[in-house]
Amino acid sequence: MRSPRSTRGLVTLAAAIVTASSAIAAQAPASADIVIGDGLAGVSLGMTPAQVRGVLGEPKRVVKGTNEFGRYRVFRYPHKVRITIMGRSVITTWTTGRYERTDVGVGVGSTARQVRAGVPGVVCEKIAGIRYCHVGDYNPGETVTEFKIKHRVVKRALVGRVID
Fold first, then answer.
1. How many CA atoms lie within 13 A of 100 on its CB side?
2. End-to-end Cα spacing for the chain
């Protein structure tokens, strides 16, 4: 049988290990919910609707539409995550919610300065009077990761394939 003194020492040691583990976990970067050039919320460009459902489950709502490029569907998920599908594959992933972040924490609500500091290769410019910070070129077939900025704060994060 252990003495009360040695048991107290074990409890103190266990508490110190738990505290240290918590501190390390708090400093570790969050997993990347926005992956530059790939997608967000675990969904990658090019996935099929079945693959999207396998990752995120059934959407809360599906909105169907047609534009000059053809028919599309937008899967709406919690945390303001939207997945646009054209044909049989994902062409755009985007969010206006604050939940999704890059591996360094950039997302909706971040400042333009944080985007410039945390996203390698980002270019910030005004396009048609709206400020965007983006990685990738707006050329047909290219992939672009875009942060729409209003009043110096990100309002929307998008990863998509340029159609036209």
1. 27
2. 77
